[in-house]
Every structure is written in C-alpha cells, then in structure tokens.
Amino acid sequence: MSPQFVLTIGRDALTILLMIAMPVLGVVMAVGLLVSIFQAVTQIHEATLAFVPKLVAAMVIFAIAGPWMVSTLVDFIRRTIESIPSVVG
C-alpha cells in the first residue's frame, strides 16, 4: 500500500463527508439565521424557538436527501472494499 493510495482514500473520504454534510448543515444554518432574525425583531428569546425549527428542518432534509446520502456512502464503501485485493496482492 503506497502513501499515495492512502492519501487518495483519505481525500475521497473527506470529500464524501463534505458532500453529505452540506445539505443538512446549510439548511439548518439558514433556518437558524431566520429564527435569530425573528427573535431579534420580536425580542422573544425562547430557547425552544431556536431549537425546534432547526430540528424539524434537519429531519425534513434527512427525509428528502437521505436516500442519496446512503447511496453515496454505500458506493464509497463498496469501492473501498473492492480495492482491498489490489492493495494486498
């Protein structure tokens, strides 16, 4: 196993991680910003008002993008496992 191969697998893993995390993080960040603006305008500072919408948005994104996330992870894992014989032998 060459150092180049290890670095390639690590880079691919980080790329897949970012691709999978971005939809959820982006939507939760946008919802958090909107809730913060709403709280600042109305001067309502309730902790559940900040938490619940972000939780609901994350669940909706997982429901919508979940199959894509799982298939992307399965493809990466399949490629990694299938490359084991070429690395060992």
Automatic annotation (TrEMBL):
Listed InterPro entries: Bac_export_3, FliQ
Keywords: Bacterial flagellum, Cell membrane, Cell projection, Cilium, Flagellum, Membrane, Transmembrane, Transmembrane helix
Topology of this chain in the membrane: Multi-pass membrane protein
Predominant location: membrane
TM ranges: 12-35, 55-77
Gene Ontology terms describing biological process: bacterial-type flagellum assembly; protein secretion
GO cellular component terms attached to this protein's record: bacterial-type flagellum basal body; plasma membrane
Lineage top rank: taxon: Bacteria
UniProt subcellular location: Cell membrane; Bacterial flagellum basal body
Function: Role in flagellar biosynthesis.
PANTHER family, per database record: FLAGELLAR BIOSYNTHETIC PROTEIN FLIQ
Recorded family membership: Belongs to the FliQ/MopD/SpaQ family.
Protein's recorded name: Flagellar biosynthetic protein FliQ
